Amino acid sequence: IVLIGYMGSGKSTVGKELSKQLKINFLDLDSYIEQKYEMTISELFSAKGEIFFRKAEIVCLNEIFESKEDFVLSTGGGTPCYGDNINVMTSNTKNVFYLNVPIPELIKRLVKEKEHRPLIANIPENELPEFLGAHLF
Q1: Beta partners for 71?
Q2: Average pLDDT, the chain
């Protein structure tokens, strides 16, 4: 099972609960990347840039799908948008679910954790609605 959706949509929260209910492993793609590269996502963005991160994300997503075990995977918000990631996901499972959350709710969630979100860390709170709206039109 793969959960996709915008940052703050609840992929990790839902994924953890779903994996408990189904008694299968929960995997978080961002955590997998952090372990592999021994850096936080924020550190990767700062030190190596978004392009490096997106390439690492592609590599790690493919590694995860090499496992033939059942799992619930929470992806990063941008994961389906880069490389061939969406095809990798949909060709490996029919169980890809998009968590759709309205923009006002996303803003409420993301404002609390902006400093941990490299893509929005430097965006003023009053500009978040336009920023999110541009990505989710």
Answers
A1: 25
A2: 93
